[in-house]
Write a structure and sequence with these properties.
2 copies of one chain form a homodimer. By secondary structure, chain A is mostly helical. Helix content of chain A is about 65%, strand content about 0%. Chain A has 2 domains: about 55 residues, Arc Repressor Mutant, subunit A (Orthogonal Bundle); about 130 residues, Tetracycline Repressor, domain 2. Chains A and B meet through α8, α9 and α10 of A and α8, α9 and α10 of B. Chain A binds a DNA duplex (30 and 30 nucleotides) through α3.
Chain lengths: ~200, ~200
DNA sequence: GTATTTATTTAGTGAACAATACAAAAATGT
DNA sequence: ACATTTTTGTATTGTTCACTAAATAAATAC
């Protein structure tokens, strides 16, 4: 069952992980339909058939890019949700989003928002999948806030789902603003404001 | 100088304004690059050359769609900015956005956000134009809040630009959430929360 | 009636799209 | 040495892209 055995055929000339990273950055900047397979391949420094051999097709390459995105650039939720208080969770998610969308070594904005927010009818499923992923993250937050209510960290009459929806709304807004060109220090003000709001909404003070 | 004279050549068989409305709805739902000229023409009930004769080309058709959008569906800012207090302005803009992005007779979401948030490199100018339009609206808000500070409606040390940026961030977030499938009554909660935040940020109470 | 103007229809243009067929090349297994 | 496996490069598939040339049709101008 181990996969340690030497590969048999002709060895791949390019670094698959690095090629995937290049694809991710192109999808990130231009969206799924804003970049062509020919463009992807040449930017990755490979021929089109090598891309298909290594990644399947354009859609699967996009999925793998999203996966890499979640493991590297957008690894926000897992560590944030593990924090002690609902407030810290909200803070970590919003600050993590600002870091993500203004990272100078990556495209501006958020792949989950701009990767396939709108598409041609042919790619509707892909757009739906991205919506589901955003809703999944919102669900994680809602569950975490629910737990905070049970723990007594949030008041009993707090609305966990609505709080999560509020944070996700600000998150998405921050992503659009970053793509619009709004700078990091301005987005950090938005985070401060939103956290002030969070405390008030959650009736923490 | 009057343009009341009868048109000379063969009369157009289709209603130009209605055709433009159909184009607007397609761009709204699928984005500039998510719908083809052939698709636009057939949905408008006309042949492709008629589209070019009436509207120039795809880009100009998009511009005219944006213009129609501003005059009809998205006529939010002018009436909102004329209201008496900064709080009422913020409230009208956020509620107007929710109405806009959840109107059951139009596509979900906001054309200014999803029309060309990301594009292929060839359409970068178009994406930049949409960013500029969003920033223009934000500028209107900032100016209005500045005036509110001068009027004593907002405290002297309020940050007009940051307040405008906050409202625009929530606005964009609401647009993304509507496209994600979040329902009107949930978005109205977000508006309530954001207005609570607005009062606190602006130090109105 | 004839000329002029504009819209419509049909049938295309070359370029770009996602995806592949095929054969040569480069590794391993026996 | 030779068969097997996988990647590579070249060339190409059929389709869709934005856009248009050309002929016909329907109105007004004089």
């Amino acid at each position: 069952m181990s996969e340690i055995s030497k590969t048999k055929g002709r060895p791949r000339k390019f670094d698959k992980e690095n090629a995937l990273k290049i694809a991710l950055h192109l999808f990130w900047r231009h969206g799924f339909e804003g970049v062509s397979v020919a463009n992807l391949a040449s930017s990755m420094g490979i021929n089109v058939p090598s891309l298909y051999a290594a990644f399947g097709n354009k859609e699967q390459l996009f999925f793998k890019s999203v996966e890499l995105y979640g493991k590297t650039n957008a690894n926000i939720y897992a560590p944030a949700l593990a924090l002690d208080t609902a407030y810290e969770v909200a803070q970590a998610i919003l600050l993590g989003e600002v870091d993500l969308v203004t990272n100078p070594e990556a495209p501006d904005g958020c792949l989950m928002v701009q990767g396939a927010l709108v598409t041609s009818p042919e790619s509707q499923e892909l757009s739906d999948m991205m919506s589901k992923l955003r809703l999944t993250a919102e669900g994680w937050m809602a569950d975490r806030f629910e737990k905070a209510i049970e723990d007594g960290d949030l008041p009993k009459n707090a609305d966990a789902k609505a709080l999560a929806c509020f944070i996700m709304t600000v998150n998405s807004g921050i992503a659009v603003q970053a793509k619009t060109g709004v700078k990091r220090h301005e987005l950090l003000k938005i985070v401060d404001y939103s956290l002030l709001a969070f405390r008030k909404i959650a009736m923490l003070d």
